[in-house]
Input
Amino acid sequence: MAKKVVATLKKEGGVTYAKVIRAIKSDKTGAYTFKEEMVPAAMVQDTLKK
Output
């Protein structure tokens, strides 16, 4: 499973956010789909470990 992180920093209430984009391969078709999430910058590594 390929992973990619694109850091898009935004300030809202003093918290810095990062945009996490993951490429997820389908077992059925073999095609890749992309899932995007906005997470606090401190939780990026925890999000990628999923």
Notes: The chain is about 10% helix and 60% strand. Strands lie at 3-12, 15-25, 32-40. Helices lie at 44-48. The chain has a mean pLDDT of 81.
